[in-house]
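$ fold --in a.seq
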Amino acid sequence: MILEREGEDLAADLSQDIISDCSVVASLCAAFTREQKGHGSLISCIIWPQSNGIPVTSPTGKYVIKLWLNGFFRMVVIDDFLPASLGDSKHALHVVSNGDPSFILPSLLEKAYLKAMGGYDFPGSNSGTDLFCFTGWIPEHLFLKGNPADLSLDLAEPLSLWERVYKTWQDGDVLMTLGTGVLEDWEGHGLVGEHDYAIIGLQEVVSESGRVGRWLLVKNPWKEGGVWSGPPFMDDDDDDDDDDKSEEDFDNPGSGSDEDSDSDEDAYPEELAQPTSRSAFWIDLNSVFRYFDSIYLNWNPALWNHRYDWHFNWSLLSTLAKPSATEHLWNVPGCFWGNPQYKLVNKSPSPSKAWILLSRHLQRKEAFDRKNLWNKNGHISLYLFAASGKRVYQSSGYLKRGPYVDSPQTLLRVEVPANTTYTIVVSSQDLIPAESTHSFSISAFTSIPMLFEPVEEPYPHISTVQSSWTISATGGNTESREYGRNPMFKISLNQPANLMIGLSIHAKPSRDGKSVGKAITTENTASPLIHVALLHSDGGRRVHTLTRNKFLANSGEYKRFFTFCLAERVPAGAYTVVASTYTSDQYAPFTVTVGSSVPLSPTAGLTIIPNEDAGLHTAFSKCRLPAKTCSIRLYMTRLSKGKIRVVKKTTGEYLRIGVWENGRKRWTAGGWSDDGVGGDEGFVEGVARLEDVDLQPDREVGETWLVVDSMVNEGSASGSAPARRFDGGFEVTILSDNVVKFWSDWVETNT
């Protein structure tokens, strides 16, 4: 049993057998390659005991391995026992050095890593993540395939990638591995699908004609795996023509042009004719982009002069300081209210680059299935905003974002202009809001000094209330005549405050007004467009009619899933919050969340204003008479206090209503102005209301009649515009504490 070995072929000599840890073995191959190139110890030095930096055999059989786990280098203790297959000497349950099976250093490193991951029944990872754990080097995942329209993928291009990595790889400052996607046997040309490979060599060769060949020496870590059988080894001339692409095609890896010139044999490295081992092969750069899905780069953090680290917990059931205050927001599409956010400040007069690395920690073993320690049910991403370091509440308007990946790490490369402050937002999709809190580390790597710190929450004091748009509580948008039927809420402030009011939908919408409960997690064009407004009101009462001066703040255009408004320096008092949908025929549960800059006392905060008909008797009638003035008799057996609302849906008509008792006008609303246009200021066109009307029984005041008077506005104050016929068609609703009945048909009346 030895821990040290000399030779130049160690990386190409390691192999994976029946354990599904190709990413681990590929990582070891890439790391040992760097050491063999003379760039110093990188992976051999993470095991103890040592002598002068060289690992030695432990007399106790115990070893300590240093791995980067959950934001720090941590100690993993193992013994020297390795698993064996009972009665089967042909297969190994650990990584093996084929040239010298007694060399067990790779096996011990593999054992330590798999111990941290839960055991030898390892479900697989990616080699960028594994190398990050072994070395702490910055992982970068580049996609070689994908939809070019998805800018978040930041698809790599052959020449630009080669220029980034070639010199750096020669200097030993980047490790490289590859990953395939799903491949059928016939389309892989010897490559294995959903498998990781190590890059153990790069070479440029210039032919006599001046053509540059860019080649990668790739190692298949699987003992039983094949090697690349593509050009120049392919026997099929048609395939040769298809895969041998000219230099111009390197900028367009997916073109698949058949008009390329024949390959230059002298452009191939000499080693190509003699593969270094049965599991290593040369492949041209263009073929890498054609047949592999991903390339994983791990960069030496010493390339950066400055590093800033933050470690944080993110409980998806409690995204802000107040426990469970905004749990409904954690998976609302487009909502960033409770997301961890950081500001990146470049105070220098010169622009500079920065890399932001987000790393998700391993979860508690008992919280997740052992085969799912990284919780691959979810995805993470980073967003960049030009928000001057202020908190961001919606995902729209970003400058740049990374793809949502199920890997534990994601990297965002940023160019920071001089004297600029950016906001970085951590985002997730479909993470399990499990029993345990999700833990992360976020790191910024910069060439010049910068400031990198959490963004302060300007509205730390939270109040929430849940409600629903239903058939009896929905009134449409701010232009609707029935806007006052929308759900409303009273917010009381004991002292001046800055407010943020958010409105979020947390269930799929319905058109039948019934309860719906399935959470919305993906964009759905059928989901309501929503809006929230903060209104001046008489002590936080229900608002029935809108005028411009009633708006204290509103969320602007109607949006889906989540919207918000901000109100600065709001005086102490009571106000009304209105939640509305663009149309009045959509129903869904929702939540209103108010964030305040000052504490909300128990007597303040957010409370539901009851619907207008709550606890009251309702009487409803439609009038279809084409008459200017119509009336109907009301009947009560007891004194009733009520509200009367008349809605006329025809545009250009104004209303006034009155209640006559025994032939005498008692209550009126609407009125007439001097120019003959009906409707006092404060009334919505086509809607007239009477509030707090005392309706007395006939035995006390005689007959009681409701009179509705209409006036057409033809756009001419002089009255010269031609008259048009009244179309009738208004609706009357009476809400009262005792029963009120319509006691006759509608009749035309002269007033």
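$ fold --in b.seq
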Amino acid sequence: MFSHISTTYISASTNRHPHGASIIGSGLVALASHRFLGFWDTTDTNGHGVIATLPGHDEEITVVKAFSDTFVTGDKLGHVKIWRKRGDKWIASHSWRAHKEPISALSIFRSLILTGSSDATLKSWYRTQDETGDKIDEGQTIDLKRRYPLDIAVSSLPGSSALIIAVATTSRVIDVYLQASGQEIVFALSLEGHEDWIRALSFSPFSPESDDPSLTLASGGQDNYIRLWLIKPTVPKPVSLESTDPTDPTDELLDAFERSLNEVGLDEPGRQLSMREHVFSVRGSEGQAVTYSLSFDALLVGHEASVNSVSWKPGDSGAPQLLSSSTDASLIIWEPIDSGAGAIWGSVQRFGDVGGQRAGGFIGALWIDPTGIAGWGWHGGWRRWQRSSNEQEAWSEINAPTGHYGPVRGLAWSPEGEYIVSTSQDQTTRIHGPVGASRTWHELARPQVHGYDLTDAAFVGPGALRLAARPIGASLPPLGLSNKATDKLESSNEDMSLPQAPTRPPFDSELATITLWPETEKLFGHGYELHTLAVSPSGSLVATACRATSANHAVVRLHASSNWQPIGKPLSGHSLTITRIAFSHDERMILSASRDRSWRLFRQIEGSQGEYEPIGDNASHGRIIWDCAWSTDDKIFATASRDKTVRIWSGSEADLGKALSTIKLKEAATAVALTEYSQKQPGDPGAQTLNSLPCVAKIEP
């Protein structure tokens, strides 16, 4: 009946959680975008960005963790889902309520899943797989004593089948647990050194075939520092039963010496160094007892704000490298300057912005592969860098996905149908369109970065005319809400740099700083904040409506785009907020829908200059009407309501406003649009019938 429909473009941001994304397999990134999962294929040479989304969670996703070909997600309701690929689709193979509070940390290692929640508990779960899916058996519940877990890292110990588990909580210590094969998880020790909460943990990858049997734990904290902890097998010192030399230092004396050193450095938070060596034993792979030592190895200093994530370069070739992200708007790659335990580490590459608007910095980062990294920021957009040569540390920034980080409230096509403008409660207006020979869609500009939530947008007049008169750039003055054209600012001595037209899609940092459009006019008249607007097909009229709790404010105001002056009297009749305004294509009619469960029709007065009069109304919907739309020939119009129906009405003069059909849905209808499709009649290849197809959305704002 219909031709094939495919997805061309998905604009989606990543949630503000350090564990909101993870790499799966070779180059596929799974990212949390509110309640949905997005998939970004980083191997796509055309740069499509997010290629698909998956529903499944009922609340915002807080954690995404991958292991092999499986990934696990957790949300604010305490639910956990396991996702597996079946054919070419990802499915939720198992889901359960792990905690009563939000999931704040999660880790998966082989069949073990560890979940941490703001209920101050850590739980273990064991996964078994079969042809029907995954099954989960609950293990232990560990009380964290009123501390919230912020991150969990798990690894196997070198030379043993036992697992080592590191847990970062809302405290200054790292709790270390051990689990022998088939045994319960037991607490082993606590690592001290950080001067604030530890937010990120990561064990270095190691191969059982490696000549180096050591394991390194990286921890990043709100004290701006990264600490490395070395874990390696050791030979226990024999304990003599004979009297010892009183001059030999004991553990108590060493502890007292460390405390005295720390007292000397109290004025330098985060730099207190504890050289204490922790020793513990577990069963080896052959059942023998293996002793390990765990000690502080290195302090990495370079970030100027909280460290939000740390991750090791995948693979075991070459020198180990650690990637860190921070609120200071930088990503850093760290590498040992020399080899061996106690090596000095330094930053070999720094990415991001120096100074300027940091806007929350980087929330998290990950390795795409050994030669590529990516990180997402406070506003949900990604930035990606690729190393161009294996011989030199030459990195270049390349395109990465961006999107609104708040609910999208307005969406409109340009008059020529080439671009889309969107507005959001994230206080930005964005332009999206195709770029390059491949015609892949990207975010092209952020014309407006406002101080208030934005609810709607529309193009006014022919885009070509507006574009020809558009200034080169715009800037937002300090403490101001109106963008000013840069080619109109008067400055005699100031050196002003103006951006040149790019040959590629702009990066997220450029979108936030150099793609503003200048503001030319403001419209006034409403008593409360605007809720919706519409522009007539010719671009000559602008209709607006505001939030309202009474009939006095539940009106539509009209302005002429030629001089921005009001036209006629406000169109009244509704008693509550008008949710949508729609012009008919011939501009003879204005349709409005309202929170008062009614729609109203207004017709242009003959001989007037854009004045309208009421001609009909209906209040048969049982709940708020969220949207309304005209067919392309204006013979019918549709309304979408929270009462789970889309209703079709006549727009013809003969039976104007007559109910023609009702489409019943399983969920509330929040948006509706009508278009044409052609259908060939059987036996008559040349005959076609035009019909109107309603398209509805079922997700409540």
